[in-house]
Write a structure and sequence with these properties.
Blueprint lengths: L1 H37 L5 E8 L10 E6 L5 E5 L5 E7 L2 E8 L5 E9 L4 E3 L2 E2 L8 E4 L11
Parallel strand pairs: 1-7, 1-8, 6-9
Antiparallel strand pairs: 1-4, 2-3, 2-5, 5-6
């Protein structure tokens, strides 16, 4: 009778080990599938440099990117080298507004972003009063530096 219980305990341990091993394989499989789905990102990005008429960078410029179809706005402040980057943007048409102290504000309309596009739009702010606005309408020359 004692041998019978010992055999059952060994069988239960073996079943538990196999069950744990199957769970571990399932976990690894789910992680592998999840990582592959991240590679199929369809969002675009827009970046560039804000500079003055002499091509010196303007740190601290305030940028507002507006999706023309949805009205969704995203804000950014240029870094110490005048660089900015808007990430995870839905493909579509956008308007970019830029303001900085001591410069005329600029609005650039009709920026079209495609699926997976990494576009670049450099903004040149003219010197002047901040209550003056320069509006650029039409297609912009988007340069894809990624591929």
């Amino acid at each position: 009778m004692l041998m019978h219980f010992k055999g059952d305990a060994m069988q239960n341990r073996r079943s538990g080990f196999i069950y744990s091993l199957l769970l571990a394989f399932l976990g690894v499989f789910l992680l592998a599938v999840t990582n592959q789905s991240f590679g199929q990102d369809t969002n675009a990005s827009l970046g560039g440099t804000v500079s003055d008429p002499s091509s010196a960078s303007i740190p601290g410029a305030k940028l507002t990117l507006t999706n023309e179809a949805t009205g969704f706005q995203s804000n950014f402040v240029s870094d110490g080298t005048g660089q900015y980057t808007f990430r995870n943007l839905t493909p579509g048409k956008y308007t970019l507004s830029v303001t900085a102290t001591g410069f005329k504000s600029t609005t650039q309309k009709g920026i079209e972003l495609a699926v997976n596009q990494s576009a670049r739009v450099d903004v040149h702010l003219p010197i002047g009063k901040t209550d003056e606005t320069v509006t650029v309408i039409g297609d912009t020359s988007l340069i894809n530096y990624e591929n």
